[in-house]
Design a protein that fits this description.
The chain has helices at residues 5-16, 186-209, and strands at 32-35, 39-45, 60-63, 67-72, 87-94, 106-111, 114-120, 137-142, 151-157, 166-177. With 213 residues, it is α+β, with helices and mostly antiparallel strands. Strands 1, 2, 3, 5, 8 and 10 form a six-stranded antiparallel sheet that branches. Strands 4-9-6-7 form a four-stranded antiparallel sheet, with no helix packed on it. The radius of gyration is 25 Å and the shape is globular.
Length: 213
Amino acid sequence: MQVSTRTLLTLLAAVTCSSAANAGFFSDPQPIVSTTPEMTVLRMELNGYANYGQADAAADVAYTGESHTWVFTLPSSLLSADLSRAYFRAALVIDDHYGVDPLLYSFNIATGGAAAFSGAAGMAHGGPFNSAFDNWVVRDYAMAGAAGSPWSLSLLNTSAAATFDWIAVDWIELHVPTSAVPEPDGALLLALGAIGLGLQQAARRTNKTSPQL
């Protein structure tokens, strides 16, 4: 019986990345904090498995049925910030098991312990094969937890694929806007109001002078 090259690659990937029985490719590193006048970003560069990640050739892996939770601790400088506009950003991809239909992959996301997403992965298999992937998909998730909930993001792999198929997460960021929402400029509002009033008056004059048919 002949076996295609693609099937062999898929089997090799399953062996290379172990199996769900040997799972544990999870990290929860201390986030790196960067700040601009508009935004503070806390970034976790995940490294649970020593492959696939774009920047550091490492990523976290969640097998079918497995879940991981990453928890962020806010620095004291953000405790007085407007946290209602904060959101998570994550880079994800499904495995490089090219013989498996991508439509079989799905996952749930919870932020702050509350549901933020549930559905199909909607992405292609990672590539190039068994190396640092260059097609990570970046997605944003709002903070769904109630006030006082932990600043956490959880992923549950709900795929209908085999137990050794997986979804990877390269990095996770927590974005906290620190600039105030700009108030409308008073002079601009007055100017817009004057323009609107002038247009209304012009329309009335046009209606009065138009011939009646």
